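FIELD: query
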Amino acid sequence: MLEIACFNASSAIAASKAGADRIELCADYAAGGVTPGIACLDRIREVCRVPIRIMIRPRGGDFNYTKEEFERMKREIVEFRDKADGFVFGVLDSEGAVDEWRNSELVRLAAPLPCTFHRAIDGVEDLEGAVETVIKCEFKSILTSGGEATADGGAEKVALLQKKFGDTITIILGGGVRSANAAELRRRTGVEWLHSAAIMQPGEEVDSIEVARIRASLSHVT
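FIELD: result
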């Protein structure tokens, strides 16, 4: 299964037509993804019905948010709740650990829609402990590169997470996933879902040919 991170409506439409199973909709690629505008989601819905999870992130940078930023995240979940298929976010505390209280509040607010804890988890020192906390918060999935900069570097750790927690929460592998390595990464880790931006040129536009190639490569993995 393939999730594509898209930073505008045209990319989401192109990715869905090229075979993406799900879209993670964001804005501002340079910032690493922030909350998109609701008009962007409306535009995509006019053309296709691929499942779309919305990134909820008030700014780039770290994941320890002020009270005002946290309140903004709550408002954004409410704004998107009737149109989205799920949400993607992650809040860390001042010590760099998963903030159980704040994340749980956001997950409850999003209910019954599923939530993914994003790659903020890769910055947590105790990765397995972080996964256990995310499960307590009732997230349905985690996007991770195994605590490393790329999926290639963290594949062995993700394989361990999949083996230990895969029956409880869905592990999504991301971080430099491309058609050249997608099939091998899936074999190495045992995860069902892979995540890619599939951006092959400067800018924010998805490469629909690359999406199709990733999708095709995964179809051969048993």
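FIELD: remark
The chain has a mean pLDDT of 96.
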